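Quick entry between incubations.
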Amino acid sequence: MSTQDNVLRASGVTITVPMAGRDVAAVRALDLHLSPGETLAIVGESGCGKSLTAMALAGLLPDGVKLSEGQIELLGEDVTDFTEANWRHRRSRQLGVVFQDPMSALNPVLTIGEQIIEAIHAHQKVSQRHALDEAISLLERVKIPQPQQCLLSYPHQLSGGMRQRVMIAIAIANKPRILIADEPTTALDATVQADILRLLKALQRDSGMALVLITHDLQLVARWADRVAVMYAGKIVEERPVASLLDEAEHPYSQALIAARPHRRPQHAPRQRLAEIPGRVPAPGELGPGCAYAGRCDSASAECLKKAPAMHVIGSARVWCHARTGNLGHEKLERVA
Amino acid sequence: MTPRDAISELSVPPVLAVEDLHVSFSARHGQVHAVQGVSLEVRPGEVLAVVGESGSGKSTLARALMGMVPVSRGRLLFNEAPIAFSAAKRSLLQRRLLGMVFQDSSAAFNPRFTIERILREPIELLGADEANAGHRAVSPAELLESVGLAAGVLHRRPHELSGGQRQRVGIARALAAQPQLLICDEAVSALDVSVQAQILNLLIELQTERGLSLLFITHDLSVVSYMADRIAVMYRGQLLETGEVHQILDHPAHAYTQRLIDAGL
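Done. Structure below.
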């Protein structure tokens, strides 16, 4: 795919975090691309680097955390070395951001109304009246029951779920080309979660907004995303269309994650034990030269411990796994082609 | 009628019966009627899932069972005997029937205490009972073993454990009194999928090996569809419907239940 087709692209991105006096890579050699209107899910368990990736893509890495290698392109522009001042013009209009903890993103001394109107005015020259109407309509779209009352409230007066919805309203206020959402609906009830995701889908349909959805929830991914990147210990281990994720995942870690999900059991049948993944995720800095998953992997061989796996294209998937090279992949290659 | 149907008609006394339970709070805007006339039963060895969204009253119900919030009306029966609403007025024997596991169990741990001390507390409070001969208190090491943790963990402090290990300690603590019924309030909601699988497996082991009943409170319907024998659906303080898991998932009586299922599965 050419650069022009991508609204967002990361190439070879490595992110380091300070640990015990040195910088340790927490995200390693990450490649991602995002097309207009597409939903890319980044999925993984705590500590896999998915939130750091989201922050890097939005130019919001915390102090001390560095993008030490690689390049990020936003709408064809290299933003790797952007300052906060550069970013401020891009964020909101080109790129909206929703993070998991809305309390840290909202200003505690301004009302919700002031904050939404401020966000609208930052990029649109419209009258106060118009901005107010727009703010009400945004709150209605994120299913806030009494928008007028909400506009007059301060963040601390709202529940966590309400604050999350306000964050989403602010993030989409300027119809960004790209929305980066880190666990945007985790704090919300299932029915509200479905409403919000339906709203985001509608925005994508109407305006071609592309969405990066960071989540640990495979169910959510399977239902709402187009493409998925599975991360483990700071690296993408598999990337594929979502349609084939649950049935055809190639990487042993993807397969283990899928098998560990609770599933509905047949009537009157005893519960089958859920598949567990033995061991734990290695911390950044504990990694050897080989595949980070090798220590927990059923299919691991001696090679896996020695050498990091290269990327293999299997059908429409990209997989980083020694065990999925050779004959194992050929069958799938032919079927998809 | 199949043999299974015939057997299912046998009446086994429930471990817990809740009758017309009401809980209200005074809030700034007046009275909040958090639980409104809920009646349900938990049968021996079964997993009853209570599902509902935030504000449905499911966590208040759990706290009422534990005697942690004031009940305004209704009846609670454990093994067919009525018990007091307030934990302080319950006998040791009654308090021992129930254990509770929270979403973030470690929030209840003193961060400066070792795991041994954290486990010894409830054992001393509830575990030993001189008056009731034959009841032997468990040791902290035995408790850890029953939740799949090595004795080495005894000397650690909460922050030295992973999220999954802390939740195991939370379960071990709830088991200190050797309860018949374990209330799990969003006990696996904050865990990663692989850790969640471990904790669910552990809970199922405890249920099958000890005949423990579980009252499983959650908003996560995929967890429910795996864990539950029966489901109780709550909405705005009321119990909408109760039924066998497949009946509720395939033929919900209420439109709200259908919406929950559509959104969650």
